[in-house]
Design goal:
Strand content: 35-45%
Strand order of the largest sheet: 1-9-8
Order of helices and strands: EEEEEEEEE
Distance between the termini: 24 Å
Bound molecules: FE2/S2 (inorganic) cluster
Radius of gyration: 13 Å
CATH architecture: 3-layer Sandwich
CATH superfamily: Rieske [2Fe-2S] iron-sulphur domain
Number of strands: 9
Number of domains: 1
Length: about 110
């Protein structure tokens, strides 16, 4: 699937979760303190909660409902109650703009 421009890199605030939708796919986007940008599925796998409403810390986003933290790098939950990963999406930075490919990937290992 083709990548879609979501915003300029400078529009992303450090460690602030932003929700975008590309082709109906809800995605949470985070720029970390090192300047890396991550995009993972926005819907918690434990319940129908938007992870973009949660808390960002140490390259994780925490679901506010029951506290599962998902890795921004792998999409995997690091603690219960969620035990299934959210998808990871490919991010590209091109000429100062952020592009996301909405094709889901699951990190298994
Ligand atoms: S709904 Fe996200 S941890 Fe329960």
């Amino acid at each position: 699937m083709a990548s879609t421009k979501i915003c300029a890199f400078d529009e992303l605030e450090e460690n602030q979760a932003v929700k975008v939708e590309i082709d109906g796919v809800p995605i949470v986007v985070v720029r970390d303190s090192a300047g890396d940008v991550f995009a993972i599925g926005d819907t918690c796998t434990h319940g129908d909660i938007s992870l973009s409403e949660g808390f960002v810390e140490d390259d994780t986003v925490e679901c506010w409902a029951h506290g599962s933290k998902f890795s921004l790098k792998s999409g995997r939950p690091l603690n219960l109650p969620a035990y299934e990963p959210v998808p990871v999406f490919t991010v590209e930075l091109i000429n100062g703009d952020v592009f996301i490919d909405p094709t889901p990937h699951y990190v298994t290992a």
